[in-house]
Here is the input.
Amino acid sequence: MASYLQCMDCSATYPVDRLIYTCTSCGGLLDVTHAWDQSPTRELFDSRLGSLEAPYNSGVWRYKELVYPDVDPSLIVSRPEGNTNLYHTPRLAAWVGVRSLYLKHEGENPTGSFKDRGMTGGVTQARVLGMTRVACASTGNTSASLASYAAFADLEGIIFLQNKQIAVGKLAQGVAYGATCIRVDGDFDRNLALVREVSDKLNIYVLNSVNPFRLEGQKTVMIETLQQLRWRVPDWIVCPGGNLGNSSAFGKGLKELYDLGLIDRMPRLAIIQAEGASPLYHSYLSGFQDFQAQKAETIATAIKIGNPVNYKKAVRALRWTNGVVEQVSDQQIMDAKALIDRTGIGCEPASACSLAGARKLVERGIIQPDETVVGILTGHVLKDPDATIGYHSATLENITPAYPNPIHSAADDVASIARILTRQAEPV
Ligand code: F0G
Here is the structure.
C-alpha cells in the first residue's frame, strides 16, 4: 500500500486499515503518510479543474494522489466539497495594512464550514474500515458536517454537543440531518474525552480531528489555494486555531507540496487564537517549553477550546513554516467580522480571527505591508446569527460595536420610511 499510519513522535508505523487514532506504543498522534514513487504534477490537477466527474469534481479529491492515493473510488463519500472561492479584497487589505489580501472562504462548503473537507476523508475511511457508526464531540461545525456526511453515506451519526454554547445554525444542522444528538453538561474538552471513551467501548468510529484521515482532507485548503494562485506562494497564511487540526493539516499539506516540488518555497503560517482560549499562544510565548490547558471562554464558540488535541502537530507546523501565533480579543473578532460581513462575503465569529490577527501582526511589524496574505475564513455567516444580530443591536456583553448596522423601525406609512432614507442619504 502506498499509504500507512505513522506516529509523529516515535515513527512507529501501522497499516492504513488498522482502527487506531494514536500510537499504541507511545501514545503519539498519527499521520497518514504517503510513499510517493513520483510526484503528481500541477498539470494533472489543472486538467481536472471544472471536472463534472466524481470524485474529481471535489476540491478534495481533485488531489486524490496527495490525499489518499490507493483508496477505492467507490468508497469515497463526497458531496462534493471544496472548490471554494478565493476573494481578492483590496478594501480589507487597506484595513489590515497590506498591499494584497485574499480571503479563502471555507464557509462555502456544503455544510458551511471547512470541516466538510475533513469529513469526506473521515467518512470515506469509516467505509474502508466497515464501520457503521461515527461520532464526534464538537463546538458545532464538525457535528453539522458529520451529521450530513453520515446521513449521505447511510451511517449512523452521533454528536456530542457542549451544553448551551453551540451556535443555533450548527445545532439546527445536526438535528436536521438526523444525527443522534447528545447534549452533555460539559465543555468541548470534556466532551472530546467522553466521545473517545464511549466510542472505544461501543465500536464507534471517532471523527474528531485526532483522526488523521480528517486532516488529509483539510490540507487541501492549502493545495486548492495555491492552485488558485497559479502556484505562486503567498508570504502568509493566517487562520484561526481551536483544536488545531486545521493548522496542523495546513502545515502537513504545505510541507508535502514543497517536498514534492509543487511549490518552490514555504509560506509562513500565523495561527490566531481568541484571548480567552489561547493555550497555544501562551505556549508559543514560552518557546513551546511549557503548555497549560485552560478553561476556555470566548464569543467565538467554534474555537472555545482550552486543551487542543493537535497541539504537538500545530507546533510542528509552526516549525516547518517559521510560523507565529497571535491572540485577539472578542471585541477585535467581532469588529473584524462586521467588516468582512460588510464586504458582502460574511463569516462566523471564529473566522474573523484571520482578519483581526493579520491586522495585529502588521501593527506589530511581523507581517510587512508589502507582503501577500491569505486569510482563511472557516465558517459561513449564517452559522451564528445570534452573534451577528447581538453585535449590530449592541446587546453583546462587553462589546461596543465599532461598525454597527442597527435595524431601523418605521411606522406603517411612506413618510416615516422616507424620513429614515432621507436621513441616511445625507452626508455624514
Ligand atoms: N473556525 C471554525 C468556524 C471552527 O468551527 C473551528 C473548529 C475552527 C475555526 C478551529 O479549527 O479546531 O482545527 O483549530 N471547530 C471544531 C468543531 C472544534 O467542533 O466544529 P481547529
